[in-house]
């Protein structure tokens, strides 16, 4: 499969949204076109500081990578956090994921960024085979703190 990797553009909306809906489904998130559209808009909202790459085959977007820079105070450097990486089922195993990761590594090199970091589900075995080949498993454990309403008595 011959692929090109490039920055996402407004013209990619239909393909990107189709892929992002598949990404949400893969992670067992409910189908929600409003959330897919909100995620799409975030890519073009300067306040979010998100950027995106797409893998294109024969004019069709078959993969996406959404990312943002972050300051790393411990190393006193900047990193890239890869929020989302997804390749359409029909294009999997043909190099799109690896090419998106390599393009992101090139962005990091070009900008003098120290690391590209991401998380994935522990049971995402197919993707983890790729990740284990191209990156190092980080020693960090991830937590989510969900803010809840205060239960203080009035």
Describe this structure in words.
- It is a single chain.
- The radius of gyration is 17 Å and the shape is globular.
- Helices cover 33% and strands 26% of the residues.
- The protein starts with a strand and ends in a 20-residue tail after the last helix.
- The protein has helices at residues 13-26, 33-43, 96-111, 125-134; strands spanning 4-7, 50-57, 60-72, 77-87, 115-118.
- It has a five-stranded mixed beta sheet with strand order 1-2-3-4-5.
- It is built from four helices and five strands.
- Helix 1 (13-26) crosses helix 2 (33-43).
- With 154 residues, it is of the alpha+beta class.
- It has one domain (4-134): Aminopeptidase (3-Layer(aba) Sandwich), CATH 3.40.630.
- A hairpin with a 4-residue loop joins strand 3 (60-72) and strand 4.
- One of its GO terms (molecular function) is acyltransferase activity, transferring groups other than amino-acyl groups.
- Keywords: Acyltransferase, Transferase.
- Residues 6-154 form the N-acetyltransferase domain.
- InterPro entries: Acyl_CoA_acyltransferase, Bact_Acetyltransf, GNAT_dom.
- This is N-acetyltransferase domain-containing protein.
């Amino acid at each position: 499969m011959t692929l090109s990797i490039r920055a996402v553009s407004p013209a990619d909306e239909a393909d990107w949204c189709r892929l992002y809906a598949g990404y949400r489904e893969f992670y067992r998130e409910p189908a929600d076109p409003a959330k897919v559209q909100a995620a799409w808009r975030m890519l073009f909202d300067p306040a979010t500081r998100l950027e995106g790459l797409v893998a294109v085959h024969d004019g069709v977007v078959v993969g996406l990578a959404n990312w943002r820079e972050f300051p790393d105070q411990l190393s006193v450097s900047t990193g890239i956090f890869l929020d989302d990486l997804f390749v359409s089922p029909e294009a999997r195993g043909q190099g799109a994921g690896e090419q998106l990761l390599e393009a992101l590594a090139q962005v990091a090199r070009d900008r003098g960024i120290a690391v590209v970091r991401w998380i994935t589900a522990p049971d995402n075995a197919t993707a983890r085979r790729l990740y284990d080949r191209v990156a190092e498993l980080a020693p960090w454990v991830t937590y989510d703190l969900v803010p809840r309403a205060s239960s203080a008595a009035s």
